[in-house]
Amino acid sequence: MSTIGETPIDLHITPIDGRNYHKVKILSKYFSERAINSSRVFVETAYLLWLSKYGVVRKLTKKENRLLKKLSNLSTGDYQLIREIESKTNHDVQAVELFIQKKLSSTTLRDITQMVHIGLTSDDINSCAYARCINVSIKIVFLPILHDLFAVLQTQAKKYKATPLLARTHGQPANGTTYGKEIGIYAYRLRECIQLLQTNRVTGKCSGNVGNFNAHHAIFPTLHWLKFSKTFLAHLELPQSPMTTQIAPYDSYIQLFQTIQHINLLLLGLCKDLWTYASLGLLTQKRIAKEVGSTALPHKINPIYLEGAEGGFEIANSLLEGYIRKLSYSRLQRDLSDSTIRRSFGIMFSYTHLSYQSILEGLNRLEPNYEAMQKELLGHWEILSEAIQTALRAAGVDDAYERTKQFFRGESRTRNEINTFMQSLPLPEKTKQKLLTLTPTTYIGLAKTLVETYV
């Protein structure tokens, strides 16, 4: 049975709250309407406690302190009450304010009910409520799964650090690398991004209607409101935005969103590379007996998790691009369009989280096809042309590049053809013998060492 703010799962419009809800359920603790309202109540009651700490409100008893701190643990009935109030006020933060006043009216705190939200504007509450939800979700949900993803990439990089792979530039055979080194690149880059994400924290504000503490200063002129605001936000574990209009500037959000977008683009590239290797037959996919790859083609095992992650990243990054562009500016002291944008944050975070899960699953279902990798390399002996022309240059041969180009360019040369060509080159015998020991599978440079050193 449907009630205010709740819909049966089969009637949800988006897959986030429908078929995929079980995968992103944890995010409802931070981005559902109930979670945001709970965070709003937390900020409002913490503000009352801070008013008491600074002597604006009478000293509260320990019991009253506990009562205020418990209010943010919204029961289903509490949440329904807030929604019912909002259906009349048509204002979410006002509904929270009236809810708190109603809850306090039958307690020893009834004498201070009018101090709830005093001097504040809605975005003093909302900026702090959203910031807390986002900062905690990054710490509790996103950093752990990114660390898990890094660990898988690091493990595979080290496991396959010596597994030869044909490197392609412009889609064409270039020279040799290893599968582990190519995975290691993503591991290294992801670690750098994780370190950056750990430093990103969304800020909050508590400075009144246009950021000047107008009402605070007019009614309580002797109180040090700048210190009050800074310590209050520190109590909420939020960095302060001291210079604001009605809203806190979204610069800290933009920095966070740019970091998330960067991570998503990085992992989007990983998806495409893995998909390409799989399509070339260089990676094999695990066969799950009960699964179906195609309704028409029973033989198919499709890289659906890589494709799903790619699609999810495209949706998330489209939203992120919109956020970064839109939230950089608010007309004069404030317009309300940012509020609509802010309500969609959970969608972006959900698609991002879904994609992280999909990549993890995709990586766990893939492994190198050693035979295919070796066969492909041995079909391209021409990749040794780089080593040969470099040796000629080092020996001082004037037409080193042209001589090598004439023999190799656009040709698939065999080992015997290369050996014959080598005999005609003006190189010391020792150098020739060294070059003759090279094969496409051994011409991998320091790929293994790079993984051991940097991953």
Q: What's the alpha carbon Rg, rounded to whole Å?
A: 30 Å
Which of globular, elongated, flat, extended, rod-shaped describes the shape? elongated
CATH second-level architecture of the largest domain: Up-down Bundle
Helix/strand-derived category reads mainly alpha
Strand line-up across the major sheet: 1-2
Examine the coordinates and then state which fold CATH places here, giving the name of the CATH topology of the largest domain. Answer: Fumarase C, Chain A, domain 2
Can you write the helix and strand succession as a string? HHHHHHHEEHHHHEHHHEHHHHHH
- Number of β-strand runs: 4
CATH superfamily placement of the largest domain: Fumarase/aspartase (Central domain)
**Helix amount, in percent?**
55-70%
Describe the structure.
The chain is mainly alpha-helical and about 450 residues long. It folds into 3 domains: about 30-120, Fumarase/aspartase (N-terminal domain) (Fumarase C, Chain B, domain 1, Orthogonal Bundle), CATH 1.10.275; about 125-370, Fumarase C, Chain A, domain 2; about 380-440, Ribonucleotide Reductase Protein R1, domain 1 (Orthogonal Bundle). It is about 60% helix and about 5% strand. The chain has helices at about 20-25, 30, 35-55, 60-70, 75-90, 90-105, 120-160, 180-195, 215-220, 225-235, 250-280, 305-325, 335-340, 345-365, 370-380, 385-395, 400-410, 415-425, 430-435, 445-455; strands spanning about 165-170, 170-180, 285, 365-370. It has a two-stranded antiparallel sheet. It has a two-stranded antiparallel ribbon with strand order 3-4. Helix 3 packs across helix 6, helix 8 runs parallel beside helix 20 and helix 16 (about 385-395) runs antiparallel to helix 17 (about 400-410). The protein is elongated and about 100 Å long. It starts with 20 loop residues before the first helix and ends with a helix.
